[in-house]
Design brief:
By secondary structure, this protein is of the alpha/beta class. The chain has two domains: 218 residues, Response regulator (Rossmann fold), CATH 3.40.50.2300; 139 residues, Response regulator (Rossmann fold, 3-Layer(aba) Sandwich). 43% of the residues lie in helices and 19% in strands. A five-stranded parallel beta sheet has the order 2-1-3-4-5, sandwiched between helices. The chain starts with a helix and ends in a 7-residue tail after the last strand. The relative contact order is 0.14.
Length: 391
């Protein structure tokens, strides 16, 4: 767990290392030449239009920064790494068609995506049968990797994340009577179920659970029911856009209890969309730009230089994923699809913004080493929570 104390203790030395260090990727040293050979392609299945389009845009920023660093440092044995991004709107019907297209395109050595677990899981059998690695960078559904040995993820399963959220809400913040609002999707329901079970096991009472549709905009009648259940805390299984709307409407309905939420709300957009209503929201994230680790500070500095703004968690997931595959492709003896899968299985301790060093459990095919920073929106920005309740 990352806390304000651990940051302060390590901050000065680590920041000095960060300013002096090079980027995460240094394939060929200071004299490396720009990669100019025949490109190696990753396929990306994700949303560029539709209700989740903002996440596809954030992915592209992380991908492109990583590719800049890889390709300017010699690429993959002199060959540039590139991606082909197919817009699916994170719709399961469209991910199936994209999977068929990627499987048939022999240039593609691995597939990244889709954004939501249900959209990815609809296509998983196609990738598994064809022997093309499907890599879910935001696929936290516990069943995502269960389709087969070509389905992998560097996202922590909700079965592991939601007990951490429950401990944060119950043991750290002090929620005793909790109302839960959740996206009424497979991801939302699964996350809610794991959170509720863990919170009950810790002694909390769940006084209300309410689902809502992804396109829903008016939550006031739902929030009136929640208010009447008399909770002392509200927990959201949401993305940042809907969480911002809920926070605004919560105050309008006279519900003034503290709000905590899943890590999926962590983005500057939450504060931009939520305004004053976002103040005091608790969350946790595996990426926080004030973490003094050199790999984090190098990433933040490079991202700001390229885009003129601070990165968020979705930028970092995408960046980490391309950095990881750059390392896999460097170590692979050839670029056959099965070889890529086997090399990913054997790789150890790849430098990672999110995990410090990334390695994988070959049984679950998920990344090892989850860590969380406990955050609160305070003063119009995310800060490390100091352990003091807001009420």
């Amino acid at each position: 767990m990352i806390t304000r104390r651990t940051l302060l203790q390590s901050g000065t030395a680590a920041l000095a290392l960060a300013s002096a260090g090079s980027a995460l990727v240094q394939a060929g040293g200071a004299l490396a030449q720009e990669a100019t050979g025949e490109p190696i392609f990753l396929g990306v299945s994700g949303p560029l239009t539709g209700p989740n389009a903002q996440y596809g845009a954030q992915w592209k920023q992380g991908f492109d920064l990583a590719l800049d660093q890889i390709n300017s440092s010699g690429g993959i044995k002199g060959r540039p790494l590139r991606y082909i991004f197919e817009d699916t709107q994170s719709d399961p019907k469209q991910t199936v068609a994209v999977a068929q297209k990627f499987v048939a395109d022999k240039r593609i050595v691995a597939e990244l995506g889709d954004f939501s677990s249900p959209a990815s899981m609809a296509a998983s059998p196609i990738y598994q049968r064809a022997g093309l690695l499907q890599f879910g960078l935001t696929n936290s559904h516990p069943d995502f990797t269960k389709t087969g040995d070509f389905i992998w993820s560097n996202s922590v399963s909700q079965a592991d994340e939601q007990p951490l959220n429950a401990a944060y809400a119950v043991k750290r913040i002090g929620f005793k009577r909790i109302a839960v609002l959740h996206l009424n999707t497979d991801w939302g329901r699964t996350s809610k179920d794991h959170f509720v079970a863990a919170a009950k096991a810790l002694g909390a009472e769940i006084v209300a659970t309410e689902g809502y549709l992804p396109e829903e905009k008016d939550f006031r009648s739902t929030l009136v029911r929640v208010r009447d259940a008399n909770p002392d805390g509200l927990f959201l299984v949401s993305y940042y856009a809907d969480a911002a709307l809920i926070a605004r409407q919560t105050r309008q309905t006279g519900l003034t209890v503290p709000i905590a939420a899943t890590s999926s709300i962590y983005s500057p957009k939450l504060i931009e969309l939520g305004g004053d209503a976002a103040e005091g929201i608790f969350t946790a994230s595996r990426f926080f730009p004030e973490d003094p680790r050199p790999e984090v500070q190098n990433f933040v500095t490079s991202f700001k230089a390229k885009y003129g703004k601070e990165p968020d968690a979705f930028n970092s997931y995408a960046y980490d994923t391309v950095i990881l595959f750059g390392q896999v492709l460097r170590e692979a003896p050839n670029y056959e699809r099965k070889t890529i899968r086997d090399t990913l299985a054997s790789i150890k301790d790849v430098p990672s913004v999110i995990y410090g060093k990334a390695s994988f459990d070959t049984q679950t095919r998920r990344v090892l080493g989850a860590r969380n920073a406990e955050l609160i929106v305070k003063g119009g920005r995310f800060q490390l929570w100091d352990g003091k309740a807001i009420n």
